[in-house]
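User: I'm writing a short report section on ligand binding and want a predicted complex to refer to. Could you take this sequence and NAI and write out the structure as tokens? A short remark afterwards would be nice.
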Amino acid sequence: MAKAGVLGAGSWGTALALLLDKNGHDVTVWSIDQAEVEMLDREREHKSKLPGVKLPQTMKFTNEIQEAITDQDFMVLAVPSPFTRATAKKMAPFVKEGQKIVNVAKGIEESTLMTLSEQIEQEIPQADVAVLSGPSHAEEVGRCLPTTCVVGARTKETAEYLQKMFMNEVFRVYTSPDILGIELGGSLKNVIALAAGIADGLGYGDNTKAALITRGIAEIARLGVKMGGKIESFTGLTGIGDLIVTCASVHSRNRKAGYLIGQGRTMQQAMDEVQMVVEGVYSTKAAVKLAQKYEVQMPIIEQVNAVLFEGKSAAEAVKELMLRDGKTEHSDLPWEA
Ligand SMILES: NC(=O)C1=CN([C@@H]2O[C@H](COP(=O)(O)OP(=O)(O)OC[C@H]3O[C@@H](n4cnc5c(N)ncnc54)[C@H](O)[C@@H]3O)[C@@H](O)[C@H]2O)C=CC1
Ligand SMILES: O=C(CO)COP(=O)(O)O
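Assistant: Sure. The structure tokens for the complex follow:
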């Protein structure tokens, strides 16, 4: 059994901390928010972010960041992406050479276009940084519903070590060397899920949802492969798998925010109503910049950007997508054998 520090006590940090506790590990959860730490310690439930999921006495909660780092065998970084760099900076003085940090947040830094693992490696160069991603809503992991994820790491040893730490009869973990592909799939699918939510909010149907998922993964893979990610990650759990669950699930924060926007709320009103991080909002501008930098077409993501940040109506955005020039579905398929 290992000692694990979990940084960030939102819905995902809390659900993963519980999973690790159930696997018999000694778990310490850090939150920046003293009131959240006291509430978790007292109530043994995160009533606003993971209601109905009881947290055992064996889980420890702290406001002191070094308690979740010093002497831990590995750390799980679960703060929303806008706080990843700042949290990594705070962690850095306490992290030992080669200590493992597995990032579970999904985002891209807009100002630098860096992935989260790149930011963490920049702030904590002595750490062994890995990622965990896949179709995995906290609400279902908290209730022990069968779930699959992928650990991406620089070495097979680290990937297999973390696989063992997380895996159990309801949480199956695969390994992969493609950290970049995993992270790009995880962050860009949130933007497409906003679009899927907008379509739901406008009252569109399953045909529209299927189109967004299929053409959405085409956009994500087009950019991701050009950036160096592997096609297998985009056709696997961390790509199409995560995109399907986020576009379809009642638990998705991104889909919910999109739904509210489709119903007429502003982006800010939708984010306030969801009350948990809506990562797609932060990733949209970064995605548009990446599309420009790598010269790839990302029409759905461009329209989400226009709706969120340029005041375009959602209905107008859909019409524009539908009336783009007619195209062939697979541009590299020849007409003759
Ligand atoms: N909730 C889910 O089902 C899943 C979430 N994720 C990803 O995990 C990340 C976290 O998501 P959630 O837990 O859902 O978010 P959340 O909104 O539930 O969590 C927010 C938590 O972050 C921490 N926090 C708030 N302000 C902070 C600050 N300034 N500095 C450091 N920590 C701060 C607090 O502990 C707070 O409770 C996101 O990137 C999300 O995309 C990934 C898979 C599943
Ligand atoms: O990444 C997730 C599920 O795999 C969570 O997505 P939401 O943030 O949209 O809830």
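A remark for your report: Residues 106, 135-137, 190, 193, 242, 245-246, 251-255, 279 surround 1,3-dihydroxyacetonephosphate (ligand 2) (CB under 6 Å). Strands lie at 3-7, 26-30, 60-62, 74-77, 100-103, 128-133, 147-152, 171-176.
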